[in-house]
Amino acid sequence: MRLDGFGILVNDMGRMIRFYRDVLGFEIKEAEDAKNVYLVKDGTLFLLYGRKDFEKMTNRKYNYTSGLNGQFELALYVDTFDEVDASFKTAVENGAEPVMEPTTEPWGQRTCYISDPEGNLIEIGSWDKPYETKDQDKL
User: Does any domain span residue 63?
Assistant: First the structure.
């Protein structure tokens, strides 16, 4: 098996579409009343599933967290430390909830955290080198 993508089960599809499209720059073409949103971001399939629609499709009921969600994080990469700071500032100015201000960690990565409107954690980080070369010394 190969990783094809990942999905987030969402409560308010319109609000989440606007956040990922308008705040984070994901290319989303579906209407705000869509039941499911499928898009590819940097070669990875990213999906937004309406919770009620997913429950109906699977004929199951699920438990959901409310508030800040510590179940997973979505990691976004930028090429420079300055871009981490600028991306954090822009995202917060456009409605993202700040979780952790940009910080250079002891292991050398500059990182910060925001959350989307439903409390899912989003990391914006950099190793201060282009994406294509960021993992060369780790392999």
Answer: no
Contact between residue 46 and residue 116 where contact means Cβ atoms under 8 Å apart: no
Count up the domains in the chain and report the number.
2
- 49 and 38 in contact (C-beta within 8 Å)? no
CA distance 84 to 77: 8
pLDDT, tens digit only, all 139 positions of the chain: 888 889 999 999 999 999 999 999 998 888 888 889 988 888 888 999 999 999 999 999 999 988 999 889 999 999 999 999 999 999 999 999 999 999 999 999 999 999 999 999 999 999 999 888 888 776 5
